[in-house]
Amino acid sequence: MSKQKISLDHSTVALMRRLLKEGMRPYLGMVIAAIACMAVSAGSTAMYAWLMDPIINKIFVARKAEYLWPLAITIITTFAAKALADYGEAVLLSRVGLRVISDMQHRLFSRLMALDVAFFGINQTGKLMSRMTNDVVAMRFAVSNALTGAGKDASSVLFLVGLMFYQDWVLSSLTFFVFPLAILPISRLGKRMRKVTANTQEQYGLLSTYLNQAIQGIRVVKAYGMEEYEKRKVHDLVETLHELTYRAARVRSASSPIMEMLGGIAITVVIVYGGTQVIALADADPNRAGAFFSFITALMLAYKPLKALASLNTNLQEGLAAAARCFEIIDTEPAIKDRPDATDLVVREGNVRLEGVFFTYDGAKSALDGVDLEVPGGKTVALVGPSGAGKTTILNLLPRFHDVTDGRILVDGQDIRMVGMDSLRAKIALVSQDIVLFDDSIRANIAYGRFGATDEEIEAAAKAAAAHDFILSLPDGYDTVVGERGLNLSGGQRQRLAIARAMLKNAPILLLDEATSALDTESERQVQVALEHLMKGRTTIVIAHRLSTVVNADIIHVMDRGRVVESGDHNALLAQGGLYARLYALQFAEENSGGTP
Ligand code: ADP
Q1: The domain 10-331: what is its CATH number?
Q2: Confidence check: pLDDT of 77 > 70
Q3: Does ligand 1 have an atom closer than 6 angstroms to the CB of 212?
Q4: Model pTM greater than 0.90?
């Protein structure tokens, strides 16, 4: 099967632009308001530094009392303005950041639901879960950091540096000679960061997958005594994660001390040079001290936003790597989707026909190798054959979980690839071996068959599926919550719920994969009754594991290695003495001698 290739531009600029365009455009108003708050905050910061000049010169040096109160009021106003602006900015940015996450989660999940079954075969659950959780959070930090960085830190630096040049341009030039030296190591760190974190997120995905498997499969793990094996697997992965996270932390920690060191050098230079000047020129220019204080305050205040700007790149790369992974899913086109000219499927008799159907899952080995098969409306066709023969594949092709590789499948003469998927699936009920129950009430689980069904309809379906009585005997009847995966129900009970669900759906075509797991005679009989009700009047394709089903089928197709090798009814096939006769001898004879059917 050809897998859709995604071409995604992974460059920082392209990703940033896409994040801004798709993530933030709806919140442009809030973003602008946040940027306005940042400007106010940055301006206030520069104001502090500027105020040092009059404070030193007018009050401490010249001792002018009339300046005291106006300056005090200006100082408190500046602080108040900055406090308000900081609050506004923080609130607005959280809002935008969180919205970006939620929107991305909505988009991711809708895309997941739209993607075809093959996609989930290729991509592990844990990996997909990690996209929805870890990655979107990392993305949020990228978005808010980029905004704060670009808005607040950059404008603070701009104002403060402007002030420094205004106060003393020689000293400023000298100081800023040092900073460009920092750019090179910092940008290197950014690149390393992105590599390390990309790897980390991958491993996190793997961890979720392992956990999922080990927890869901806990019975198997215990039954086979594989606890140690699972522990080792998870242990190794946790250690790898530890190593990677630690490496990321080391990279992250490096950018701060580099800046710290450079800051130290800059401040030393300033104090030595500026101090010399103040000492030498104290008498000639008494305002020198104020300007110098203002300068050094600006330099110290600029230090923090500069440092933040320096680590901005590393943080950003972390988030961008996550964004790239999210976009990858969002950009994956479902391989199976409605044609633009799709019409609704119209079912009259419910004839199903497979014409020369070939199918391969992986493009290499064929699972179906030219299958022709006819199911007349309302009749029951049983598929039997050794495992791996292709029986389940036929059931998968009908609701278009996969599309045929070659040939076609017709329902009442309409190619199923030409009709709307919703209309096709609405006409098909599927009862598979692995019964999926959701952690919800029995009622909700049956209602999954037809959304919006009334309580009466649900009960009628349960009665027809021979499930009503056992449901009433549960502590809360129809409101009993079945627990994750229905673990507190017996196998037969789960099957009957699945049958009730299909009953409620009341679709003309029924795909049935009978459970192979042995039920006790009583459950078996009840399931049998339920199935008979369900199959009545519907076109049924059943993968038969029970002799009774086989014997009662209108026609039996025996499959082997992707082909139909024998067809006919039970007696005819037995008389033929071929594969069916051998399978019968192996599989059903014992059941038959037990006298069940
Ligand atoms: P049956 O239901 O008769 O046991 P299946 O239809 O499940 O057989 O399988 C038919 C063939 O397709 C087998 O060779 C099986 O290995 C292969 N197959 C089934 N499912 C997949 C899958 N998801 N990916 C790749 N190969 C698959």
Answers
A1: 1.20.1560.10
A2: yes
A3: no
A4: no
